[in-house]
């Protein structure tokens, strides 16, 4: 078994794991009716001229199932944080009381739940497409090795089967994540 072939397989599996991690990150951002501090990941506020993630300039906590509290380390950061949350377009209006910013999550309607499930499915489809693209690239690399006579036809077929196995496993993981998120969203 060629070292190059092993590297291709390891690289392919690693890239597929990264695709799953990206999907998990995107699904966390989709709110399912419950308050989650991760909903504010990716939001940056202007901190002395530098765009800074909220978690680095404020304490973010969940007060109850429908309320997130954002307490800035410095009081003068209330306005920039509030503007950043509004600009982020997460669909929640911040309530500023002079010390804290509170985010009240409204209960989800049936229609909104269905929209969120569609959004999750779109993210899942993107994850599957990226996994299939990674598979295609891995198989192309294997075929190139076979064409250059670095590996035999049998070794190439075995490696392609192994990459297909990775693809099936990671596609099933995408489906599991989507099922869990859909269940979370649809629970009232």
What does it look like?
The protein is built from 4 helices and 6 strands. It has 188 residues and is α+β, with helices and mostly antiparallel strands. The protein folds into 2 domains: 3-29 and 109-186, Ribosome-recycling factor (Topoisomerase I, Chain A, domain 4), CATH 1.10.132; 37-104, Gyrase A, domain 2, CATH 3.30.1360. It has a 4-stranded antiparallel sheet with strand order 3-4-6-5, covered by helices on one side. Strand 3 and strand 4 (67-72) form a beta hairpin. The chain is elongated.
Rounded average pLDDT? 86
Portion in beta strands: 5-15%
Principal-axes shape call = elongated
Give me the number of helical elements: 4
Written as H for each helix and E for each strand, in order along the chain, the element string is: HEEEEHEEHH
Distance between the termini: 53 Å
Helix content: 55-70%
Q: Please, what is the CATH homologous superfamily of the largest domain?
A: Ribosome-recycling factor
In CATH, the topology of the largest domain is named: Topoisomerase I, Chain A, domain 4
Radius of gyration: 22 Å
What is the number of beta strands? 6
């Amino acid at each position: 078994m060629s070292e190059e072939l092993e590297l291709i397989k390891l690289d392919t599996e690693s890239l597929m794991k990264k695709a799953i991690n990206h999907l998990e990150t995107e699904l966390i951002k989709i709110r399912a009716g419950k308050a989650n501090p991760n909903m504010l990941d990716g939001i940056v506020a202007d901190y002395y001229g530098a765009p800074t993630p909220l978690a680095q300039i404020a304490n973010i906590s969940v007060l109850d199932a429908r309320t997130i509290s954002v307490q800035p380390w410095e009081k003068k950061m209330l306005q920039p944080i509030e503007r950043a949350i509004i600009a982020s377009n997460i669909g929640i209006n911040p309530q500023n009381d002079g010390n804290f910013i509170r985010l009240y999550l409204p209960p989800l309607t049936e229609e909104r739940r269905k929209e969120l499930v569609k959004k999750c499915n779109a993210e899942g489809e993107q994850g599957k497409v990226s996994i299939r693209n990674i598979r295609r690239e891995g198989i192309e690399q294997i075929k190139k090795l076979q064409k250059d006579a670095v590996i035999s036809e049998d070794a190439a077929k075995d490696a392609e089967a192994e990459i297909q196995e990775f693809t099936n496993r990671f596609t099933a993981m995408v489906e599991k994540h989507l099922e869990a998120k859909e269940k979370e969203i649809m629970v009232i």
